């Protein structure tokens, strides 16, 4: 079986003399070519064409020989008789960083606007339920000043809590959604209590 494998022609090969090679043989050939001085300046695709292998295999073996797993190996360039290392670490780095930042900003801005719309809708729905009770007139304010001014102070305090909790929810803080809903409920209760007091003392 091994003898048959060594003699099997390469599938899809254009050359008549090409034979099937094991992956280990290909890797050994790539290592041998990369060890030569002539290969230091050649690209992965050029070396792959010389050996009849894929450029991905050349890139993998080049990284292995560089001793840095998963990172680009140090490349060299030739200028006349001089050979010097190439710094490829910054290629497209600025562009990729800008794209990543733009994507993050876009996602964050979209999420903030979505939560802002949700908060506004919840607040408007709560205000609509409060409006069913009516409005506080000047006469009603005089009643509150005379008998239950603390009720109006509670309304103002819970109004401030709704604003603070809403901002935390819009910014996406953990648990802020529950705090915002609780603040809305307290605010609505304060208004209901206020109107109950007014109904009780309106004629006083």
How would you describe this structure to a colleague?
- The protein has 204 residues and is mainly alpha-helical.
- The protein folds into two domains: 9-86; 94-201, no CATH class.
- Helix content is 66%, strand content 5%.
- It contains eight helices and two strands, in the order ααααββαααα.
- It has helices spanning 2-7, 23-34, 44-51, 55-66, 93-131, 138-146, 149-170, 176-201; strands at 75-79, 82-86.
- The chain has a two-stranded antiparallel sheet.
- Residues 1-17 and 68-72 have low confidence and may be disordered.
List the helices and strands and how they pair.
Blueprint: H1 2-7, H2 23-34, H3 44-51, H4 55-66, E1 75-79, E2 82-86, H5 93-131, H6 138-146, H7 149-170, H8 176-201
Antiparallel strand pairs: 1-2
* Number of separate structural domains: 2
| Shape summary | rod-shaped
| Secondary structure: number of strands | 2
In helices, the fraction of residues equals: 55-70%
Sheet with the most strands, sense and barrel status: 2 strands, antiparallel
Unreliable residue runs: 1-17, 68-72
Question: What sequence of helices (H) and strands (E) makes up the elements?
Answer: HHHHEEHHHH
> By helix and strand content, what is the structural category?
mainly alpha
Strand content: under 5%
Task: Give the integer mean of the pLDDT values.
Answer: 76
**Cα gyration radius (Å):** 37 Å
Query: Can you list the strand order of the major beta sheet?
Result: 1-2
Cα distance spanning the termini:
109 Å
The oligomerization state is single chain
């Amino acid at each position: 079986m091994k003898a048959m494998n060594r003699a099997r022609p390469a599938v899809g090969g254009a050359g008549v003399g090409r034979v099937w090679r094991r992956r280990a043989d290909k890797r050994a050939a790539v290592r041998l070519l990369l060890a030569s001085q002539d290969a230091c300046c050649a690209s992965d695709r050029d070396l792959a064409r010389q050996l009849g292998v894929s450029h991905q295999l050349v890139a993998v073996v080049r990284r292995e020989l560089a001793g840095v797993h998963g990172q680009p190996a140090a490349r060299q360039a030739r200028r006349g008789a001089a050979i010097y290392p190439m710094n490829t670490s910054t290629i497209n780095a600025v562009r990729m960083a800008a794209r990543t930042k733009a994507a993050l900003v876009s996602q964050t801005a979209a999420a903030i606007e979505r939560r802002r719309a949700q908060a506004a809708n919840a607040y408007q729905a709560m205000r609509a339920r409060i409006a069913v009770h009516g409005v506080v007139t000047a006469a009603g304010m005089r009643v509150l000043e005379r008998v239950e001014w603390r009720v109006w102070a509670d309304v103002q305090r819970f109004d401030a809590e709704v604003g603070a909790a809403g901002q935390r929810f819009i910014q996406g803080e953990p648990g802020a959604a529950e705090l915002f809903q609780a603040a809305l409920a307290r605010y609505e209760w304060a208004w209901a209590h206020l109107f109950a007091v007014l109904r009780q003392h309106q004629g006083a």
